[in-house]
Amino acid sequence: MGGRALLAALCVWSHCLVALGEEPVAAPRNTAGKKSDFSGIESKFSLRTPEQPYEDTCFLVPGQENSVTQCNFNHTSKTFVVIHGWTVTGMYESWVSKLVKALYKREPDSNVIVVDWLVRASQHYTISASNTELVGKDVAKFVDWMEEQFGYSLNNVHLLGYSLGAHAAGIAGKLTNRKISRITGLDPAGPNFEYANETRRLSPDDAIFVDVLHTYTRGSPDRSIGIQKPVGHIDIYPNGGSFQPGCNLGETLLLIAEKGFQGFQEADQLVKCSHERSIHLFIDSLLYEEKPIMAYRCKSKEAFEMGLCLSCRKNRCNNLGYKVNKVRTKRSTKMYLKTRAKAPYKVFHYQVKIHFFAKKNMTETNQPFLISLFGTEEESKDIPVTLPEISTNKTFSFLVYTAVDIGDLLIVTMKWEKESIFNLKYWWNTPEFSIQRIRVKSGETQKKLVFCSRDGISYLRKGRGAAEFVRCLGKNAAKENS
Ligand SMILES: *[C@@H]1O[C@H](CO)[C@@H](O)[C@H](O)[C@H]1NC(C)=O
Ligand SMILES: *[C@@H]1O[C@H](CO)[C@@H](O)[C@H](O)[C@H]1NC(C)=O
Ligand SMILES: *[C@@H]1O[C@H](CO)[C@@H](O)[C@H](O)[C@H]1NC(C)=O
Ligand SMILES: *[C@@H]1O[C@H](CO)[C@@H](O)[C@H](O)[C@H]1NC(C)=O
């Protein structure tokens, strides 16, 4: 295959670059386990166990077959390889063991390996960033050795890399003799990588399937903590990808004010909060098997905010995280979703479409509304929504989401709020629109429903009571009201 040959050529090129000053290793290895191949490996491969997910108890040492036996590596199970990112403290961050635990909970027979490259990861950022080449090379050698020595299939290998670790995983994927099954990039690092040649960073060619979560892409490119451009087959941008709910500075300061020093420590967590959210979303997908979080293909986050992208036709929607459908397209697919501020993160998405009638021509901007959804199971009241614009005799579409699984939707109410600040414009004149029907489409169930005003027409006045809409009774009722 041409692509494969090209990849091999890049591998050699990449090898040459990082192997300068070392003995040549790019030549085909026809005898497995040549000791000299492994002498340069500094990364350590800790096979964690379900019983002790927190500790490095046994290391797999490339070239030493007995280490694999001693660590009870299961040759028939799949293997997860977790690669951490840059670290200031030189220690594992607390998410490592949480991810290991969640992987074992979902796949009890699997092998979960944590790559320890802490020494190389605790340098000046730029140095650690360039060390991803060395780490990727180490991981590739390790994986190739497992295949050559034990016939362990690379179809069983799933690399999970966070921040700089995502690029190390990408480099590893470029260098292995055969393609690795899957790489998951958890908010791959942005600085030094946003504009880097794809031979130096995570890219779709690095595994049979590459999925990426982008959770902290705020700021100008190359200064953003997480990479902004799509680098996988599927690139998911939760909450637009720039930052995550529950992670804002206001909440950080509040924590410090409330909790003093302890708050300060938690605040440090909040600084990394959006970046690390990528990991916790993935953990969520491992733990809540029966409630997969859905993401939707969309051309922009603005279009997603308008509720225009909740379709599942032709693979337009997918599961976030572990149970993603491995849909591969030539170009990266950008997907979006909303989440809660804490675990479990799943929300239910609805597109709401309304035609605003009025006798006068009016245009109002940035108007606050409260939407309530009443369903067969639960209700979700007073969901705040700000509409950028509403105007006479036009249809507007917007996104409403709630963490509550309301079941089948029965009633929708809508209330037009007054702004909290006094506005002279509305002192003597209360704007009013009339609404006949509300169209709602559920992203999670893909159901489309129409809701009618009980009286044929309902009036929505700013600062007044809520207008109520119920399921339209059959086709005729819908027609009568139109
Ligand atoms: C290895 O994993 C397989 C499933 O892939 C499982 O059936 C088997 O019991 C495991 N072996 C050991 C020794 O745990
Ligand atoms: C990336 O680097 C390779 C090898 O030097 C080069 O052939 C390729 O054109 C570069 N790609 C881009 C997009 O610059
Ligand atoms: C809006 O449409 C309604 C019904 O079609 C019509 O009665 C009304 O005059 C229109 N309003 C304006 C401002 O044109
Ligand atoms: C409202 O605006 C539309 C388009 O700008 C115009 O055609 C219509 O005549 C206006 N109606 C009234 C009642 O001013």
TrEMBL record:
CDD domains: Pancreat_lipase_like. Its EC number is 3.1.1.34. Its main location: membrane. The keyword Glycoprotein applies. Ca(2+) binds at E198, R201, D206. It is found in: Cell membrane; Secreted, Extracellular space, Extracellular matrix. Residues 1-21 form the signal peptide. InterPro entries: AB_hydrolase_fold, Lipase, Lipase_LIPH, Lipase_N, Lipo_Lipase, PLAT/LH2_dom, PLAT/LH2_dom_sf, TAG_lipase. Transmembrane segments: none annotated. Pfam families: Lipase, PLAT. GO terms for molecular function: apolipoprotein binding; heparin binding; lipoprotein lipase activity; metal ion binding. Residues 348-471 form the PLAT domain. The active site is at S163, D187, H275. GO terms for cellular component: chylomicron; plasma membrane; very-low-density lipoprotein particle. It is a peripheral membrane protein. GO terms for biological process: lipid catabolic process; very-low-density lipoprotein particle remodeling. It catalyses: a triacylglycerol + H2O = a diacylglycerol + a fatty acid + H(+). The keyword Hydrolase applies. Gene3D superfamilies: alpha/beta hydrolase, PLAT/LH2 domain. Keywords: Calcium, Cell membrane, Chylomicron, Disulfide bond, Extracellular matrix, Glycoprotein, Heparin-binding, Hydrolase, Lipid degradation, Lipid metabolism, Lipoprotein, Membrane, Metal-binding, Nitration, Secreted, Signal, VLDL. PANTHER family: LIPASE, LIPOPROTEIN LIPASE. Belongs to the AB hydrolase superfamily. Lipase family. This is Lipoprotein lipase.
